[in-house]
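haha ok so turns out i had the wrong file open the whole time. this is the CORRECT one, sorry everyone. sequence first:
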Amino acid sequence: WGLLASFMVDNLGVRFTSIFSTAASVVARGVFVFGRSQTSLLVVVLVLSPMGDGTFDPCFNVGVKKCTTDVTRPFAYALAYTVMNLGGAFTDNLTEAIRRLEFFVGDLWFSGLRCVLFSSLVLMVGALFLAIFGLKELSDQEATAAARSVVMTPPTRTTPQLRRLAAARGAVSPASASA
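then structure:
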């Protein structure tokens, strides 16, 4: 699926690939929640779900690379993978707690696992709306300009405390440290 995603990102853009992969994940989760036949669940497990997740990963990497500079890219990847790991840790524990419960809505019975899958479906629908209405395709020049506009430059002036500390260490003369 990564090869397909790379082709799609190169020829159709990050936005289209994001919408495609998120829509495939929404359909997969919908079948997980509402599907009743073994065949439909097998199609989802073997085709739709891996396709949705597998096409989004290269798209995500290209999007982060395209919207950052060499200076900000390590921080952007670190932040993204931290959020992914935290999400995995929280959802694992939350799923473990909820899946043993049973929920009744009127005369309908829902297992805890089906409720977890339903919450995943709701979140993926939100992600799909975000991909449709929140993403815009950036040209290479726009992406570079946007990434450079958020690069923070170090301050040109130091505080009096830093100047005194530098003078105490012998890095600058005491006269310039008190100025």
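The beta strands are 102-105, 108-111.
again sry for the mixup
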